[in-house]
Amino acid sequence: MIPDPERTYPVPSVRRLPIYLSLLRRLRAAGLEAVSSTKIAEELKLTGIQVRKDLAMTGIVGRPKVGHSIHELIEHIESFLGWDRPQNAFLVGVGHLGTALLGYKGFAQESLNIVATFDNSPHKIGKKILGREVYPMEMFPTMAAKQEIRIAILTVPARVAQETTDVLVGSGIRGIWNFAPIQLSVPDDVIVEDVSLSSSLAVLSQKLNHRP
Amino acid sequence: MIPDPERTYPVPSVRRLPIYLSLLRRLRAAGLEAVSSTKIAEELKLTGIQVRKDLAMTGIVGRPKVGHSIHELIEHIESFLGWDRPQNAFLVGVGHLGTALLGYKGFAQESLNIVATFDNSPHKIGKKILGREVYPMEMFPTMAAKQEIRIAILTVPARVAQETTDVLVGSGIRGIWNFAPIQLSVPDDVIVEDVSLSSSLAVLSQKLNHRP
To answer: CA torsion sign, B21 to B27 to B33 to B37?
Structure first.
C-alpha cells in the first residue's frame, strides 16, 4: 500500500509513530534485526490491532509470524513523516521556551534543523544563543525566501503571536509549530500544529480531580 | 447533571476546556454576561454539538436560546478541572525547559503554583531561579510530605527520568506532568500526562509531507 497524498490520517496514529521509532532504534542498537507487531504492542502497552493499523498507515505490509525487518520499519516511518531528509526551520521568539527548544537534543533524530532564530529585542539581536545567531524580525521574509524555509517554530508571547504569524505566512511559511497559547488565523493552505500546555495540564488536573 | 467521579471523560473534550475558559474570560472582560453555545462554536470554529457535549460533561445544563451565564460557565469548568483552588506543584529539573515553565505566565490562570524546584546540579542548588529556590533532590521526599504536594512537573533529561519518577512516586506524588521524552512506569494509582514534543512535530511533519 502506497500512502495516498490526498488522504488524511488519524492523528492518534500519527502521534504514536515517534514512539515506534524510538523503540525500533533501541532494538536496532541492541543488535536485533526483526520484530513482530505483537512484540511491539507488548513493549508499548498497546493492542496488536492498533500497532498493525498504525504500521499499515505508513505503507508497511503485514508479515504475520515472520516479523518485520526493523531497518525497513524505520525507513517506512521516517519516509511517511518526511523525517528521512533534513527539515530546515526558523525559530521566532528567543525567550526561555525558544532557548529550551534550541537546546533540545531530540530534534536531531526528527531531522528538524533550526537554522536561524529571530527576535525583536535589541538585547538579543546579533548575539549567538546556543550556537544560533539571533536576527531581527525584519530580516525574516528575505532570509526565509532565500533559504526556502517552509517551517517556523513560534515561541513569541501570545499578544504578538497573530501579527508575527501574518509575517511568517507572507514569507512563504507553510507549517507553523505554535507554542503561543492562542488560536492562530491562517489561510487554508497553512498548517498550524499547536503545543497547548494548558490542554495538557487540563487532562492531568481533571484526572486528579476525578480520581475514583 | 453532577460529574461522576467514577466516570472517565473523553480526552479531546477535556483538552478543549482551557480554550473555552480563555474565550469566556475574554468575553467577560469585554463586559458580556451571557453567551450561547452556538456563538461559542462560531468563535472557536467548532460544531454546536461538540460545544454542547463538552459543556454538558462539566455538569452545565443546556439553556437553548437564553444562553449561558458566562460567570457560571467559568465556575463550572474551573470546578470540573479543579482549577477553582490552587494546585501546588514541585518542579524537578531546572534546565532550559524547566526555567521556561517557571517563567510561563499562563499557569496563574490554571491555578498551578510551582512552590519549589529541585535539581542535582551543585551549580544550581541554593540559587534562586525566577524567584524560586532550587533544592537538592535529596530534600524532595521530606518537603513533598510536609507540604502535601501531589503534583510534580518532570523536566529532567530522559536518561534519569525513570529513577527520578521512582523518587517522586515514593514521596506521595500522584500526578506527574512529564516533559521527558520517555514512557514512564508508574503504579496504577499515579497519573502521568506526557507533553510529547516528538508526537506534535510528527503531526506537523506528516501533514506537510502529504500536502495535497
So the answer is: negative
Backbone Cα Rg of chain B? 20
Contact B18 A195 (CB under 8 A): no
For residue range B62-120, what is the model confidence (pLDDT) as tens digits? 776 778 999 999 999 999 999 999 999 999 999 878 888 887 767 777 889 999 999 99
Which of B16, B58, B80, B197 is most worth mutating to test chain A (most A CB atoms within 10 A of its CB)? Answer: B197
- Coil, strand, or helix at residue A178? strand
Helix (H) or strand (E) holding A48: helix A48-57
**Euclidean distance between CA atoms A60 and A77, whole angstroms:** 9
Which of A19, A96, A202 is facing B81, going by the closest CB pair? A202
Please judge whether B206 and A9 are an interchain contact, meaning their C-beta atoms are less than 8 angstroms apart. yes
**Helical residues (DSSP H) of chain B, grouped into ranges:** 11-29, 37-44, 48-57, 70-81, 96-103, 140-146, 158-170, 197-209
Q: Average pLDDT of A180-197?
A: 90
Using one digit for the tens of pLDDT, what is the confidence trace for A38-88?
999 998 888 999 999 999 999 988 776 778 999 999 999 999 999 999 999
Q: Is A189 exposed, middle or buried (0-12, 13-18, 19+ CB in 10 A)?
A: exposed
Residues B121-175: tens digit of each pLDDT: 999 999 998 889 999 999 999 999 999 999 999 999 888 999 999 999 999 999 9
Interaxial angle between packed helices A96-103 and B96-103, expressed in degrees from 0 to 180 and rounded to the nearest 10 = 160
Amino acid at position B164, single letter: T
Distance separating alpha carbons of residues A62 and A48, to the nearest angstrom: 12
CB contact under 8 A, A100 and B100: yes
In terms of phi and psi (left: phi > 0; alpha: psi -120 to 50; beta: otherwise), the region of A126 is left
Cα B105–A153–B106 angle (5° rounding)?
Answer: 10
Instruction: For residue A192, report the phi and psi dihedrals to the nearest 5 degrees.
Output: -115, 125
- What CA–CA distance (Å, rounded) separates B104 from B197? 17
Please tell me whether the overall predicted TM-score, pTM, comes out greater than 0.95 for this model: no
B183/A19 touch (CB, cutoff 8 Å), yes or no: yes
- Phi (first) and psi of residue B118, to 5 degrees: -135, 145
